[in-house]
C-alpha cells in the first residue's frame, strides 16, 4: 500500500470509529479527508455517504453522489451489492422510489445468495415509504399500486413467477 492509500485508510478507520460513537459530523470530516487524500478509495466514499445520510444539513444529491462513487470504485461484488442496498434504503427514506427499486434490484443481481433478503427489504420498505408519504387525501388507487408493486417484489424474493404468486394468493 502506498502512502496515499495508507493515509486514506487511516482516515477511513478514524471515520468508522467516530460513526460507531455517533459523531457523524466528525466522521464526515474524516471521510471527506480520506476522499481528498485518495479519491479512488471506495470505503472513503461509502463512509462519506453513510455519515452524511445521518446529517440533515447535507444535500440529498451529494449523498447519492457519494454512494454512486463508492459503488463505481468498489471492485468486490459483495461489497458493491451492500452499497447498492444502502443507497436503496436511503433513496426510499428520501422518496426516490425509482432509484430505490433500481438499487435493490442491482444488489440482488450482484449477490444472488442474498437476493431474497434484498427483495423482501425492498417490498416492505417500498410499501412503508409510500404509505408514510400519503396524506389523508391519498387515493386508494395509489396505495393499491404500492401494494401491487410490493407483492411483486415479495414474489421475486420467493423466486415465484407472478402467475404462481397470484394462484397461491387465491387459495
Comma- or semicolon-separated keywords:
171 residues; mainly alpha; 9 helices
Give the helix tally.
9
Structural class: mainly alpha
Q: How many strands, which pairing sense, and closed or not: the largest β-sheet? A: none
Rg, alpha carbons: 18 Å
Compute the average pLDDT.
93
Amino-to-carboxy terminus distance = 60 Å
Order of helices and strands: HHHHHHHHH
* Low-confidence runs: none
Rough shape? elongated
What's the number of extended β-strand segments?
Answer: 0
Fraction in helix: over 70%
- Give the strand content: under 5%
What does this structure look like?
With 171 residues, this protein is mostly helical. The chain is elongated and about 65 Å long. 78% of the residues lie in helices and 0% in strands. It has helices spanning 3-20, 24-37, 42-53, 60-73, 77-93, 97-110, 115-133, 140-157, 162-169.
Amino acid at each position: 500500500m502506498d502512502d496515499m492509500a495508507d493515509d486514506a485508510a487511516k482516515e477511513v478507520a478514524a471515520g468508522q470509529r467516530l460513526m460507531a460513537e455517533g459523531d457523524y459530523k466528525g466522521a464526515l470530516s474524516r471521510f471527506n479527508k480520506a476522499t481528498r487524500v485518495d479519491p479512488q478509495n471506495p470505503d472513503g466514499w461509502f463512509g462519506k455517504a453513510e455519515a452524511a445520510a445521518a446529517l440533515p444539513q447535507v444535500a440529498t444529491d451529494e449523498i447519492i453522489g457519494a454512494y454512486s462513487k463508492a459503488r463505481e470504485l468498489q471492485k468486490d461484488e459483495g461489497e458493491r451489492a451492500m452499497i447498492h442496498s444502502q443507497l436503496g434504503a436511503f433513496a426510499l427514506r428520501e422518496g426516490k422510489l425509482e432509484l430505490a427499486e433500481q438499487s435493490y434490484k442491482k444488489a440482488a443481481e450482484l449477490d444472488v445468495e442474498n437476493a431474497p433478503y434484498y427483495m423482501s427489504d425492498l417490498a416492505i420498505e417500498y410499501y412503508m415509504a409510500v404509505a408514510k408519504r400519503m396524506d389523508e387525501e391519498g387515493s386508494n388507487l395509489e396505495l393499491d399500486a404500492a401494494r401491487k408493486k410490493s407483492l411483486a417484489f415479495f414474489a421475486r424474493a420467493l423466486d415465484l413467477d407472478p402467475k404462481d404468486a397470484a394462484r397461491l394468493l387465491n387459495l
